[in-house]
Model the fold of this input.
Amino acid sequence: MKTEKPNWFVRFAWSFWAYLIFVILFGAWVRITHSGAGCGAHWPTCNGDIIPLQPSLETVIEYTHRLTSGFCGIFGLGMLAFAAKRFGLRHRVFIAQALTLLFVIFEGAIGAGLVLKELVADNASSARAIVISLHLVNTFFLTGSAAAAAFFARGKVPRVQFSNSLKWMFRGVGLLMGLVAMAGAITALGDTLFPVAVTEGTGFFAHVKEDLDATSHFLVRLRIFHPVIAVVFAVAVIIIGLNVFDEAQGQNLFVAKLGKALMHCTLLEVVVGGTTIVLGAPGYMQLTHLFFAQILWTLWALIFFSTWRKKDTLVY
Done:
């Protein structure tokens, strides 16, 4: 009996995607622990040294994050060379892998800018809020392009054709997802710099009223907007996910399952987000929330890639 040859590129590509998720979560942990200034306003050196001597805990966290981030570039270069050899320079797998490396570079540049401009640790400026929200959007492009490389390299790519109305609504949800993520990044920054008290005693609505007070910091006042638009987003995704499942069921079962997974992941994300608020946004819940946000985005991206109709010849 003939056995199918393992597709090692796909395995390595998904491993790269998983590693990127790990580094993104590590970056959030740097923010949560106020360790962004652990190496001072120095980059690429750490407090002026290549290897910090007698580092503090914050320095260890920041320096380790820099090392893991640097390995993204090495891993990305290796995957780009692998894609070039296996698929050729004009193949969309190579293009997706090249975009992944480009977004890795952007990610490093944004991180370096945050450090050099001292938009880290306890900095509560509007500039930091804007940059950190763009930082998260770049991670979406990063993990999305990494997932694209793995998806397109799998051999026969699943194909579906949605109705025009569903196609445009689905794309609109992707844009809304980016806006919700940006609001979430600003909310997470506010939760880090201005810790939230557990919703007890005076109650949840009293906390909201206090946050919206004109004397509160703008990061505190903005906290309420993320959960509100996230609920609207969740309803939209669940409805569209159900339509994706219905329309894809007769065309490709894999894409239909992705539609179902999109709905389930959205519900799970709402539960995680609500729990995060109730518990006062502890670090481990922020990381869990961010993790499922990346999973949700990847599911959306895979369904989006399945709607591409451009013909392509896979090279092995």
User: Anything to note?
Assistant: The chain has a mean pLDDT of 89.
